[in-house]
Amino acid sequence: MGRLIDIRWPELDIMVVAELADEQNPEMCEEFWQDLPFKVMQAHPVVSGESLYAWTPTISTAPVRHRERIVDCPVGRLRYSQATGNKFSIQYGKGLEPLAQPVLGMVLPEYHHLLPVVGKAIWNNLFFAKEQIFVEVSPHDPAEAFKGEGRFANLKGAAAEFYAEAKRIQTVEPEDLRRIRSGEIGDTGTYGQYFTAWDFANGMLRDYIMYTAYPLLKLVDTLSHKDLIAAVDAFDPAYSEYLGYSGLETLLDFSVKLRAAIRETEDKEELRTLMRTFIMYGNRLCAWSYHYFPWYLGMFYGRKINGQEFPGRFNPVKS
Fold first, then answer.
1. pLDDT (tens digit per residue) in 204-233
2. What is the architecture of the domain spanning 4-140?
3. Is the Cβ–Cβ distance between 236 and 274 less than 8 Å?
4. DSSP state of 22
């Protein structure tokens, strides 16, 4: 039997208990366990169907031994996606993507009836309401909680700065992102409109952190120090400089510090820690950017399938 965790949504006054897949993915479950308890914003996917997900504080590179396709996941399945932001997901209905993700565990059957209630509430919140609804994950038995900071104990220099800011903004929206979504970003956006700048920043932030920085972390063990510096120098500035121009000034400052710190050490553990803490900060930006993005614009492009309540008012030109 795997270890038990409590998953709680305080704003909804709902809690469920789940069992971790300790036998199927022991290393990944251990990394997840070491970061409990945590509290982060609860999100909902916009393309993959009826599930919940949240960016965790964990930056996992553990080996994955068992995966399951989203379309095959039963109600109650917990997944953990290292490659798409270190998010943990809970299936509450029909999945749409054939993508396979690592199995993290399963919500106990007696709580399954609560999951669609949470799922629909979070979907409505992500799509329209934009309230701050958090999810709290903790060991079911508080006595089993991991003690200490684990991999992030005794940080120094840039890594300590990245980690401290990541922790600070775990439940507080970063000011840089608030200014972007409020249009307080100077001249960014042609002819005075700022939606395009907001859209570009949201998409590029996702690509930068999830699909560039995280793969670079996984290359730390295989690249020479010289080649790692070259890879980071090749990939980083195109993202960080544009995002800095878009208003993410702290991210730009951190990226400069990251590149400098990577030059200063050849120690693999220090390099992994630098990348992990930088990605941890970047994931928090991704979570907040995703939450406040105006997904409600999708009501104008709705299809009358899969329970779509808002078929939309957009009428494409007929040929």
1. 999 999 999 999 999 999 999 999 999 999
2. Beta Barrel (2.40)
3. no
4. T
